[in-house]
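Side project, low priority. Logging it here so it doesn't get lost.
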Amino acid sequence: MIYLSIILAIIFFVLSIIHFNWARGGTWGFDNALPTNEKGERVLNPRKIDSLIVGLGLLVFSLFYLHLSGLIILPLIELVSKYLKWIIPSIFILRAIGDLRYVGLFKKVKNTNFGRFDTYYFTPLCFIVGILGYLIAN
């Protein structure tokens, strides 16, 4: 389980870097990461602060999994750790299932740039993160 924790820590760290880049005005991958409707109009219009908040959350997740691997020691209350082990993978499984319209496995709008990226990259990554997280939690 140590290696699975390290893998998740790396995934979350890379994702946090991407979000921090967007928070400081970077554009790499930004357009393909936002759902659009059939007309190509964005469904979400996050601000830089939104990217910063998500980036910080992902960084916390990375640190949490590094803690679980034993590579770093964080002063976590055992109760918090016990629940985070289940909450984090649940967030990503729910993201993988999606909103039934624009995001996730059961989305209806599929023929957009985001829809294709979501089908081939984002949703599978969320499932993998969720499954690895559940394996670690057991």
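Brief comment: Residues 113-137 form the longest helix (25 residues).
Revisit when time allows.
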